[in-house]
């Protein structure tokens, strides 16, 4: 919801500025060269931070609209990281490393543990708290140029919101992998249910997102004798939900 408000785009998600691909590249490097669960999570988190640094580096060296520059920089970073991911998959051991890479890229909690989660818990808690404190300012940013007349430092608030959003996403992805559709779908679900701005829906979005992921994880564990990657379930129900509301003529974009 933060990404969609800042970029004024209902299709915006962490993928749009390369965060997910950065985390994925870091995890792949961890699988190839470190082969330890804790180090894979750490390298994934560092990859997410690297994407943040590169996006801001490219944006600061660009002229024109800052929002457009952020989006274009994110697309560039995502494309570079995606090409590197494909290159490393080619050189990976096809019998041991490649299956691990593919399974990680589909997301899931099979390798997650409380000890690993506690490492990222502090960053998650801090990011959630600061974004909660910024929720009113983020809502005002969504008004566009009017935000400046309301006494809000748009650039400062936008940068803070993006930095802590990316820290939050990087922390979560480093533990669970890239779980598809959650960041895109849940804000739309909340808007259709409540029709309230981000300042009033922030906590509800967090809770519904957590419940949705847990529900999909239970289905992934119980549907077959083997545990499915959670992204298979989230992608299916996410696409199904959007198809239903699109068929009914609801405004989702």
UniProtKB/TrEMBL annotation:
<feature type="transmembrane region" description="Helical">
    <location>
        <begin position="40"/>
        <end position="58"/>
    </location>
</feature>
<dbReference type="GO" id="GO:0005886">
    <property type="term" value="C:plasma membrane"/>
</dbReference>
<dbReference type="GO" id="GO:0033214">
    <property type="term" value="P:siderophore-iron import into cell"/>
</dbReference>
<dbReference type="InterPro" id="IPR037294">
    <property type="entry name" value="ABC_BtuC-like"/>
</dbReference>
<feature type="transmembrane region" description="Helical">
    <location>
        <begin position="161"/>
        <end position="186"/>
    </location>
</feature>
<feature type="transmembrane region" description="Helical">
    <location>
        <begin position="112"/>
        <end position="132"/>
    </location>
</feature>
<dbReference type="InterPro" id="IPR000522">
    <property type="entry name" value="ABC_transptr_permease_BtuC"/>
</dbReference>
<feature type="transmembrane region" description="Helical">
    <location>
        <begin position="198"/>
        <end position="216"/>
    </location>
</feature>
<dbReference type="Pfam" id="PF01032">
    <property type="entry name" value="FecCD"/>
</dbReference>
<protein>
    <submittedName>
        <fullName>ABC-type Fe3+-siderophore transport system, permease component</fullName>
    </submittedName>
</protein>
<feature type="transmembrane region" description="Helical">
    <location>
        <begin position="12"/>
        <end position="34"/>
    </location>
</feature>
<keyword id="KW-1133">Transmembrane helix</keyword>
<feature type="transmembrane region" description="Helical">
    <location>
        <begin position="70"/>
        <end position="92"/>
    </location>
</feature>
<feature type="transmembrane region" description="Helical">
    <location>
        <begin position="228"/>
        <end position="246"/>
    </location>
</feature>
<keyword id="KW-0472">Membrane</keyword>
<keyword id="KW-0812">Transmembrane</keyword>
<keyword id="KW-0813">Transport</keyword>
<comment type="similarity">
    <text>Belongs to the binding-protein-dependent transport system permease family. FecCD subfamily.</text>
</comment>
<keyword id="KW-1003">Cell membrane</keyword>
<dbReference type="GO" id="GO:0022857">
    <property type="term" value="F:transmembrane transporter activity"/>
</dbReference>
């Amino acid at each position: 919801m933060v990404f969609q408000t800042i970029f004024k785009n209902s299709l915006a998600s962490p993928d749009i500025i390369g965060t997910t691909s950065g985390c994925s590249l870091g995890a792949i490097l961890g699988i190839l060269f470190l082969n330890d669960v804790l180090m894979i999570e750490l390298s994934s988190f560092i990859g997410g931070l690297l994407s943040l640094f590169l996006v801001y580096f490219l944006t600061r060296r660009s002229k024109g609209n800052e929002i457009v520059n952020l989006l274009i920089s994110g697309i560039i970073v995502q494309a570079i990281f995606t090409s590197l991911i494909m290159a490393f998959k080619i050189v990976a051991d096809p019998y041991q490393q490649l299956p691990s890479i593919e399974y990680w890229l589909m997301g899931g909690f099979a390798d997650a543990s409380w000890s690993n989660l506690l490492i990222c818990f502090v960053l998650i808690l801090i990011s959630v708290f600061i974004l909660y404190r910024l929720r009113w300012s983020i809502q005002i940013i969504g008004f566009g140029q009017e935000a400046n007349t309301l006494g809000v430092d748009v650039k400062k608030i936008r940068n803070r919101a993006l930095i802590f959003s990316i820290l939050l996403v990087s922390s979560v992805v480093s533990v669970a992998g890239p779980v598809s559709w959650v960041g895109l779908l849940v804000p739309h679900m909340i808007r259709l249910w409540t029709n309230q701005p981000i300042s009033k829906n922030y906590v509800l979005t967090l809770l519904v997102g957590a419940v949705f992921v847990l529900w999909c994880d239970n289905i992934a564990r119980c549907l077959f004798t083997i545990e499915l990657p959670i992204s298979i379930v989230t992608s299916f129900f996410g696409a199904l939900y959007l198809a239903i509301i699109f068929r009914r003529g609801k405004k989702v974009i």
